[in-house]
Amino acid sequence: MQEVRGGVQEVISVRQIFNPTLFVLHNGILCYNRHTDPAKPYDALHVCVQTVKLEEVFKICHKGVAWGHRGVAGTLDKFQRTFFAMSAREKIRRLVDRCNTCLAKERSIQAKRGPHVPRTVGNVGEKVFIDLVSMSETVRKNRYMLTVQDGFTRFASAYPICNKEADFAYKNPPYNPSSNIMERWHRTIVSILRTMGMEMQNEWDLGVKAACLAYNTTVHNSTGQTSFFATFGREAIVPIHWVYPIPKPDAEKDVTAWTETIQERFQTAYAGMRDKQKQTIRRNVQYYKPILKQFNIGQWVWIFDPRIIPGSCDRLRLYWAGPYKIIWLMAPVLAEVIAVFEQGKPRIVSLDILKEFRGENNGHSLPSDPPHPSFQGGDEITEIPSWS
């Protein structure tokens, strides 16, 4: 028998199965003789495990106090030190994948695992994205930044606000972050504010207008135009133009001629932007690997929930909550879920952050036992930046 990294090669012929040298009875127990060399009697006999007993032995080698829910390689190594089973690697792999407690070790998810559902926007104002960002409190008591971006021209605006109550703002429900272009815009505007100096920690509300101007006057990769030009039909006048003025056209145009010129600019620019949008969709589809299983209404699932909880150790905190029950599949990549054992409102989540629940007898076990604590007011829990 060929040995690989201390484990036995699992390809055994029918002749080898009935070989009395390889399989022997020891104290009434069928064992596999790992070493046929008489000079190596140590660690030679491995107990043969029946298929119906494999899961029970797996719990000993994987879920025992001294085993720590190791992965496929670690569990297989512990299994092969004492036991033997045909096609053990594949069977152990399936059992490890079904272990709910192992989710406690996962602190990230694989993005773009679901189907690619492109959303094309053909005109200005056809789709507008709105979101709220939690920031540090400034001397003017502004704690949040309301961001707005047009889905076609990518023209963005940001407004400092003091709270997120209904009188000031209405926040869109949580859903797939990768489907909202605001997530990428948030990283951009924060990076621009960071370059303005340390005073932006408490004065960021004074720099949002300049940050938006810097973004809107830069050529966007997905449109091939500056957001300002795509919105107003001309380039913005920036401070450098005060020092070096832009030359004016030789002849002034009347209102009709100027309107026709602007209209022609929009038609030419928008045609190019639509072609650029199609190229971006064809490029992005190459990065998606639709390996998600099909979820059904009524199915129990875990949810990846990377919340920062005050007073808890981030390194030891569980990143999976649940179980939740799917009550509505509202889109190919979105689902509405509700907690099974906890009181709460339904949540709209992406299928990317779901994993199938395989509890025993629908028991409430790890990784969400005990469940996340709840806080009054909601301001003490801050979402981690997007993982996509």
Query: Sheet bearing the most strands, described?
Result: 5 strands, antiparallel
The helix content is 25-40%
Q: How much is the average pLDDT?
A: 76
> Which strand order do you get reading across the main beta sheet?
14-13-12-10-15
The CATH topology of the largest domain is what?
A: Nucleotidyltransferase, domain 5
- DSSP summary: helix tally: 10
- Number of domain modules: 3
Distance between the termini: 47 Å
Structural class: alpha+beta
Describe the structure.
The chain is α+β, with helices and mostly antiparallel strands and 388 residues long. The chain has three domains: 3-99, Orthogonal Bundle (Endonuclease III, domain 1); 128-287, Nucleotidyltransferase, domain 5 (2-Layer Sandwich), CATH 3.30.420; 300-383, SH3 type barrels (Roll). It is built from ten helices and 16 strands. The chain has helices spanning 14-17, 54-62, 72-82, 88-97, 182-194, 200-203, 208-216, 227-232, 240-243, 255-284, and strands spanning 3-4, 7-8, 23-26, 29-33, 45-48, 83-84, 128-134, 144-150, 156-161, 300-304, 307-308, 320-331, 334-339, 347-350, 354-356, 382-383. The strands form five sheets. The protein has a five-stranded antiparallel β-sheet with strand order 14-13-12-10-15, with no helix packed on it. A four-stranded mixed β-sheet has the order 3-4-5-6. A three-stranded antiparallel β-sheet has the order 7-8-9. Helix 2 crosses helix 3 (72-82), helix 3 (72-82) crosses helix 4 and helix 5 (182-194) crosses helix 7 (208-216). The chain starts with a strand and ends in a 5-residue tail after the last strand.
